[in-house]
Design brief:
This protein is 64% helix and 4% strand. By secondary structure, the chain is mostly helical. The protein folds into two domains: 1-86, Orthogonal Bundle (Arc Repressor Mutant), CATH 1.10.1220; 96-121. Strand 1 (136-138) and strand 2 (144-146) form a beta hairpin. Helix 1 (12-25) packs across helix 2 (29-88). The longest helix is centred in the middle third of the chain and has 60 residues, at 29-88. The N and C termini lie far apart (71 Å).
Length: 160
């Protein structure tokens, strides 16, 4: 194994203790120091990696929570809009239903094609009109907390 030279200054008492331990273990002072540093850093790096991983997982969990709340809000909006639309739609005569259903299916396919082409091109009405919702905001006491779904910011747009 290739080693790199590192010079450090220690108090004379510690240097004497290192020499005594090296003599008792029949090893070099360098080996004793390497073992001590390795032992000291092994737990630290694992703890740091664990803390970093947990922080990333917490951030992902907060983002998923925001997505779930947004999805639920969208579903509720769609359900209420559909219910309202159906409550105000006039009844269709039996003779006209086939023609109306065919026209509706054609319009629906056109709507789906428009959605697919816009999203495929990287365009989105949501992203064009609203800024991204941050998953964490600063609380008054300085702590971080999840942003509630009713705290969306609305972008100002100029109307000509």
């Amino acid at each position: 194994m290739v080693r790199q030279k590192i010079t450090t200054y220690v108090p004379p008492e510690l240097a004497d203790a290192l020499k005594r331990v090296a003599a008792v273990k029949d090893r070099s002072v360098s080996d004793v120091v390497e073992d001590a540093v390795t032992k000291a850093l092994t737990g630290v790096s694992r703890d740091a990696e664990h803390a970093a991983l947990m922080a990333k997982l917490d951030a992902m969990a907060r983002r998923l929570g925001v997505i779930e709340r947004a999805q639920e809000t969208l579903f509720e909006f769609t359900a209420h809009a559909t219910r309202f639309s159906m409550s105000v739609a006039p009844d269709i005569a039996e003779a006209d239903r086939a023609n109306v259903n065919a026209r509706g299916a054609e319009r629906f396919r056109g709507l789906l094609n428009a959605i697919v082409s816009r999203l495929g091109a990287g365009k989105s009405v949501l992203r064009e009109n609203f800024p991204p919702v941050r998953d964490a905001v600063r609380e008054p006491n300085g702590a971080h907390g999840a942003r509630r779904h009713d705290e969306f910011e609305i972008a100002e747009t100029a109307h000509d």
